[in-house]
Structure formats: C-alpha cells, structure tokens
Amino acid sequence: MSKKLYLISYGCQMNEYDSAKMADVLAASHGYQRTDNPDEADLLLLNTCSVREKAQEKVFSELGRWREWKNADPSRVIGVGGCVASQEGQALTERQPLVDIVFGPQTLHRLPELLDSTRGTRRPVVDVSFPEIEKFDRLPEPRAEGPSAFVSVMEGCSKYCTFCVVPYTRGAEVSRPLDSVLAEIAQLAGQGVREVTLLGQNVNAYRGAMGDSGEVCDLALLIHHVARIPGIERIRYTTSHPAEFTDALIDAFAEEPKLASYLHLPVQSGSDRILGMMKRGYTRAQFLDKVRRVRVARPDLSLSTDFIVGFPTESEDDFVQTMDLIAEAGFDCAFSFIYSPRPGTPAANLRDSVPEAEKHRRLDILQGRIRALDDAFKRNLVGTTQRVLVERPARKGRGQLAGRTSTNRWVNFAAPDALLGQFVEVEITEALSNSLRGRLRGVEQAA
Ligand code: SAM
Ligand code: F3S
C-alpha cells in the first residue's frame, strides 16, 4: 500500500509552491501520495507562515489538534516547515513535543533524509539552515498541475523592511541560474503549461547567472527569454518591490505582449514619513511616477498592492495620505493588513501607539474603498471580450469552466471540458463580487 501524506499549507504563493515541491520530493523518494483524509495518512506536514502574529499562532493551535491523530498510531510522523519552523528551529520541538521534523524553506529537499532519520532514531530532527540554492538542484522534475504554473526564480529577501520577518526566515536573496529556470519552464510547457508566474519574495532583484559567461540576467531579460519558450503564452511575476521596479521592467509591459496586464506592486503606505520608518526606499512621488509610466506602457493594466495600517505612530493624517494615494494610483485590487509586530524586526522595538479600535476602523475604511474599486474594474469589463486561459471546471454549475483574464480576474462560463488548458475568447456578461460571468465566443488555435 502506498504511503499517504496529509499536507496543510499557509501563507504566500512561495509557500504554495514549496508545498507542491515537498509532495514531489516525497513522491520521488518514498512513493508518498497526497491525501485529503488525514486518517489514512502516516505523515502530516504543516507549511507555516510567520509574516503576522495570527498566522504564527495558528500553527500552535493547529498542532494541538493533531495529538489524538498521533496517539492513535505513534509511528505517524509530524513535520513542520516554512517560516515559523525557520524562526523557531529547535525551540519548536521543545514547545510542541508532537513534532518530529522541523525544516526551513531552504531545506525542504532534505525531507527524505530527515524522515528516515527520525523514523530510525525515534528522535526529533531539525534542519533550518540556508544551504543557498542547493534546493533547486535536488528537486525532482517539475510536474504540471493544469495549464498555469508557479516557478520560483529566486529565494529570500535582502531588503530588510523594518516590519518584515522574511529576510530572517528565508535568508538573503539568491537567484537561480537562467538556464535552470528556462529548463524548468520548457519542461512544464512540454506538459501543457501555457502560463507561468515567476516567483520571488523580491522578484525584481532576480540576477541569474548566464552560463559561465560571468554575466547576469535581470528580471526584464528573463521575461523576454521565457516569452520565447514554445507553448508559453502568458507570463506573470510576483512580488515586485517598487524601489527595484526598473525602467526595463516598465518597458517590458510595452514590448512583451505575453506579459499579462497585471502588476502586484506593494506600496504599504501613502505617507512619506511612514515609508521612511518602514525603510521602503521610495517616496510616494517616486512610486506614483512609476505607476504613471507603467500605465502609459500598458493602458489596460490591473494594478494591485499591499497595505499595512496601524504602523507605529501612524496618524490620521498619514492614513488620509494612504487613502488619497489609492485614488491617485488607481489600484483596483489590494491585500491589506493591520501591522503586526514581529519579534526580531526593528519596528518591533517601536511603541505600538495606534489604538486597536482605530487600526480596525482604518482597515475597514481602506478595504471598503478597495472593494468598490475592484467592483468598478470588473463592471468595466462587462461587454468586452477577454482572452481567458481555461484552468479548471468551475466550482459551481455543471458544464461550467473557470479561467483567468490577463488582468487576473476569474471568469466562469459554459463550455465543454475539452477546452481545459486552452486560451479562449469570452464575452463578459456579468460582474459578481468575486468573479465574472461570461459567454464563450471563440477558441484560439494552439500555436
Ligand atoms: N516582497 C513584498 C514587498 O515588496 O513588499 C512583500 C512580501 S510580505 C511576505 C507580504 C505582505 O505582508 C507585505 O507586502 C506586507 O503588506 C505584509 N506584511 C509583512 N510584514 C507584516 C507585518 N509585520 N505586519 C503586517 N503586515 C505585514
Ligand atoms: Fe519583506 Fe520588505 Fe522583503 S516586505 S519580503 S523585507 S521587500
């Protein structure tokens, strides 16, 4: 009987990507298959996130729930990976003795050895080191799941924004060599992948070695190389840092039609005083200038961002400046969070001066505004015909398929399953709160 893995993943797209790789590594080494039923699993992996306190606390409450599962069969193994594991290391096994394996984002490829070791010795094992880019050399061949795939091109972050734990949990920026990235994407394209999202915590800092030439490839050039891979028709990337959103990246929106009309450019705040305290490395005016130029390069762009409200000392005036920036930049999508002090980060030493109720009030106002802008963006698409990559059957409704527009909006429409994995033309007929509805107008012939 094959071994079964139950995997729970929290957090960002990088974590989602890592979770898929964990499953691949264990499938290749031990024949593990993923299951949705924990009762038939003998291995539980939690891929954790520590970017905000709530996410971190969830890990410990989640672990508590697995005591009975483990007691029912003590040979069962519990592994904790991701950023909480990286931050806590050994302390995690002390705080929660149920845990057998602790591994970090850069050591997931060592899971097979870690698993054998804990099974052999019946003692917990911990490996949260940062062995640079070794991870990518040791991962099995990529496996496509559908026509859209994530491809991690760099790891870590060296920006050290004062609020953020990522540089400590994921280590410094390290880029994969260009050839290794292109080979992975070509393999995925061979398996029917038509769209890739190039991933990195600070993906604009990609600097991949080009063979032995001593030259490096930046993200803009990488996009052009990826666009030449047969079968790849659409390219996205995330997450961009505004300070490193270069002219070459702006030009790519004008020059490269395969680059999707969607950009996630986290601004965090509209107040120069707060941006300075966050050490973001740009001013509001510099941010707006880049937005203005990218809109010239790609007029139909969907612009998404991240905000933190309630950063220490954030005044009503700072918040008003953030709200004004929303209008000026014309964001149509945003992820917004209440500031959460993270141990070990510089901002954690600042007095958390904004009252709790005030933080919630600001978040509600900001989210209400963003919802209205997202609704308006979707309403504007009604009556237009959009190029949609058909990704999966729709969650509701038989005979309905779902795919995304270039601007990253989900559309549901009636169509035969044979169109899964293809680009189609869909006329948008209705805007709903989380998606669009449309009517199939045509099917694109594969290149
Ligand atoms: N690399 C991205 C960038 O350029 O800003 C950010 C990656 S971070 C994991 C994702 C988002 O989480 C950030 O953009 C920020 O809005 C939010 N975040 C990070 N640390 C936070 C904290 N301590 N409290 C609240 N939100 C936080
Ligand atoms: Fe965090 Fe700033 Fe890097 S938000 S991931 S330190 S760009």
Describe the structure in your own words:
The protein is of the alpha/beta class and 447 residues long. It has 15 helices and 21 strands. The chain has helices at residues 13-30, 53-64, 67-72, 82-88, 90-95, 111-121, 134-137, 166-170, 178-190, 219-227, 247-255, 272-278, 284-297, 316-329, 356-381; strands at residues 4-9, 33-34, 43-48, 77-81, 101-103, 125-127, 148-152, 154-155, 174-175, 195-199, 208-209, 216-217, 234-238, 262-264, 302-309, 333-338, 385-393, 400-404, 410-414, 423-431, 436-443. Strand 15 (302-309), helix 14 and strand 16 (333-338) form a beta-alpha-beta unit. Helix 11 packs parallel to helix 13. The longest helix has 26 residues, at 356-381. The chain is globular, with a radius of gyration of 22 Å. Bound molecules: S-adenosylmethionine and FE3-S4 cluster. The site of S-adenosylmethionine has 18 residues, from strand 15.
Mean pLDDT: 94
Strand composition percent: 15-25%
> In order across it, which strands form the biggest sheet?
2-1-3-4-5-6
- Largest sheet descriptor: 6 strands, parallel
- Ligand roster: S-adenosylmethionine, FE3-S4 cluster
Q: Specify the number of helices.
A: 15
What structural category arises from helix and sheet content? Answer: alpha/beta
Unreliable stretches (pLDDT < 50, length at least 5) are none
Globally, the shape reads globular
Count of DSSP strands: 21
Radius of gyration: 22 Å
Helix proportion range: 25-40%
What's the end-to-end separation, in Å? 42 Å
